[in-house]
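Running log. JK asked me to keep both predictions on one page so they can be read side by side. First protein, sequence followed by its C-alpha cells:
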Amino acid sequence: MRVLVTGASGFVGRGLVPYLAEQGFNVRAASRAPDPSWKDSVRIESVGQDTDWSAALNNIDAVVHLAARAHVLKEEAVDPLSEHRRVNTQGTKRLAEQCDAAGIKRFVFMSSIGVLGNNSLRAKNGRAFTESDESNPHDDYSRSKLEAEQELSRIDSLSTTIIRPPLIYGAGVPGNFQRLIGLAKKGRPFPLGGVRNKRSLIGRENLCSFVSLILRDERSIGQTYTIADEELLSTAELYLSLCKHLGSRGKVLSLPEPILRGMLQALGKGKMAERLCDTLVVDSSKARERLGWKQPKSQEDGLEEAVRGAEI
C-alpha cells in the first residue's frame, strides 16, 4: 500500500514515517521541511483551503493526515481560532476533497481526545471517555479538530477513520511534556502530591502501531476510535517516573489541590491548573476488542525512551 503521511516532520510524523516503512508500507512524507533520509517526500509549504496536494497525492492509495496547527505555547495570532480553523478545519477539508477527486478513498485523520472535553471525571462522573460520548471541545484547537471531523463526515465517498488520542509522549516530545522532563531532570520540588487525578497517555510507538493496524483492517472504515495506553498515572506519579528514569531525586510536595488551583488561577494560569490537576481517562476497549489492537510497548518503557531522547 502506498501511503501519504502529512505533517511528517512533526513529533508524531517523525515516528510514523519510519514505522510504517518498517511495516512494509511504501511511504511518501509530506512536510514543510523534508528530511533527506526519507525515500519519497514532497514539500508542502503551508496547509489551508488553497493548498495544492496534487503532487503529494499522485499514485497514492491512502492518506494519514497529521499536519495541524497544534497547541501554541506562546500564542501571537490576533485571532487564534481563525488560525486553527484555517489549518485544521479548512486544510483538512481541502485535502479530503482532493483525495476524493483523485480517487483516493482511504483517509485516516488524527483528531484529539480534546473534542470530548478536558476532564472525564467532571464530564463522565468518573468514567472514561469513549467514542460514543457527545462532543464538548474545550479550546480553539479541539474545536477546530471537531469541525474537521464534521467536514470529513460530509464526504460520503471517502473511507475515513478518525483517531482521538490523548497526550502523546516519546523521544523528542515537545511542549509541556518536554518542560516536565526538564523539571524532573533538575529534581525540582513538585507541588502535586495532594492531587489525586488520573491521566491517560499514549506512547508514540503505540499510536503508530494502531495507525498501521487501521490501514490494514477495513473494519476500521467509517469508525472513530479513542485510543490510549492501558496504564494510568496521576500527574505526580508521572513526574516521579520521569525522575526515576533520569536518575534525579525528585520530591513531591502535598499542597492541597484547592490551594494549588487557587494560586495558579491568581497567577493567570488557569489552563495550566486544568492540565496538571484534572482527570482525563480514555477507554480503548473498542480498538482492543473489535480490532484486536495490542499495545506493543509498556508505558514504563516508553517513558524511559522519552527521557533518553528528550531535547533538553
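And the second, directly underneath as requested:
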Amino acid sequence: MSILEFVTVTLSRIRSKLHPRRVDEDFRKELALHLELLTEDNIRHGMTPAEARRQACLRLGGVDQLREINLEMQGLPFIETLIQDTRYGWRVLHKSPGFAVTAVLTMALGIGASAVVFAALNAIILRPLNVPRPESLYSIHRSDTIANQSYPDYLDLRDRNRSFEDLAAYNLELVGLDTGDNPSRAWGIATSRN
C-alpha cells in the first residue's frame, strides 16, 4: 500500500467516524443501485422480475452482512480496540481494588527497575568516555609477548612520552567467580593508574 493510498483510506475512515449516518446512507444507496443493476441484468437474461430480484439478492449476499462488513472496514480498528481494552481493563480494576493496587505496584517496580538498569547500562556502556576527544584515544601494547607490561615499563613510557597528551594504564586480570557448585573464571579490570 502506497503512502497516498494509506492517507486516503485513513481520511475515509476518519470521515466515516465523524459522519457515520451519511456514510451508512451512502452505502445503502450504493447497495440498492447494485441490487437494481443485477436485477435488470437478470431480467435481460429472461427471468421474471420477482425471480430476477431474488437471484440478484442471492448473488449480492446478505444485505445486513454487507453492512456489518462495511462498518468494520470503515472504522479505525487499532483505536477502537485500544478504547475497548482500556474500558474493559478499567472495569476489571474498579471491581477488585486489591488487584488494581497490586497491578499498579508491579508495573511501577518493573518500570523503575528498567529505568535503573538502563541508567547503569547508559553510564557504563553506551555513553562515551568522559574525555575531551574520545576519538583520539589509542591503546599501546607490546606485540612480542603475551604477558602484560610491568608498572615500571608504564612509568618509563609516561616519562619519555613526547607524542601523547597523557597516558593511563590498566591491568586485566583473570579473576575467580564462585557461584557455589561451578566456580568459573572471567576477565575483569583489576587496576588502573594515571
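Observation for JK regarding the second prediction: The radius of gyration is 37 Å.
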